[in-house]
Amino acid sequence: MTSRSRSTLLPTLAPFALLALACTSGTSATEGVEVTASAIVKGTESDASQDATVLVMHYDALAKGGGAASGCTGSLLTPRLVLTARHCVAITDPGAACSSEGKPIAGGAVERDREASAIYVFAGRERPDFIAGTARPARGKEILSTGAVTLCDNDIALVLLDRPLEGAPITPVRLDDKPVKGELVTVVGWGIADDAPNPPTRRQRADVAIVDVGPAPELGPKEFRIGEGTCQGDSGGPAIAASGAVLGALSRGGNGSGNTGAEGCLGGTNIFTSTAAHADLIRSGYAKAGQEPWLEGQPNPLLAKVGAACEADADCRSSVCDADRKTCAEECSARACPAGFACVESGARKLCAPTEEDAHEGCSVGPVAGSRPTSTRSSGPGGSYVASAFALAVILAWGWRKRTVRSKG
What we know:
alpha+beta; 2 domains; 28% strand; globular
């Protein structure tokens, strides 16, 4: 099986030819790895419910040849924590073939992680406008990985950001159960599409079946395989279960044709690294980010707990806001209330409310603190436009900051 990296960059534009001489895109070290992170083929535009899927860009102005840029996809687990593929944030072989034991057959070596500060993450469904300089990415502060020296069974990483990423929700993740063969998933990404090399909006493809769960031929114990769907630029992107939880990060794939672009993805298969198989790593990332995990089937931990202030049902983990008391509550129409609470009518609902004695004493429940190598799916060569535009945005931002500092004396 031969596949290509799933990151994509835009073509060079003549107006930026001069800048491109200084900031052209070099060949991505991750390109060619059997880690699929490509653009979605035969998909549709991604909707607002998938806004936790973000664009992950690597840009190194000091790279050999005058600069290098590459693009991948990621999933926002907390406002400051992104799940992606290891090959998107590390220098690796351009391809990998793995055994059913999760050992490399060919390629797949990891040299080292990149500088975290060279990783930029963008929110939104529309491709960022690098030229206008209006994009406001968060920047990497730390890269978390298993430390493995091979991508086989370990093509997964977390990026801890320097600040919360504005304008994007977070997503739940599956950590307790393995993916299931035959399970249908939705894949989302920023990669190449069959009708556009660089789609202006994020793409998705629903109802893609999991065809194998490792160990299986060319599939390690911590990996699973789906059918056609992803392409270059989708690397690191999610396979999303019907529950809405992320099951894995895209690693590698292709159709074995050796063709570039979408022609190398149509009819192919794609391999993901399982999140459940790396639960310890992901839990450590949540700890670093200072948030409890949002597990599959559980309420969003960013929402208010019972007893905390609220204005609407959507503010509460219980999905119930007591309109009279403006606090999150639990319904009691089908179950008894805990000690210290009584079941009272509030509009058309029956809710647990503090008893009179507890209410007078202020004793309410408050919030708790707290075979042949295939290629990776990240984008690489052919991206002078993105590299140039991104470099321009960075240079302008740096210049603005420098002028601001000087103006302050």
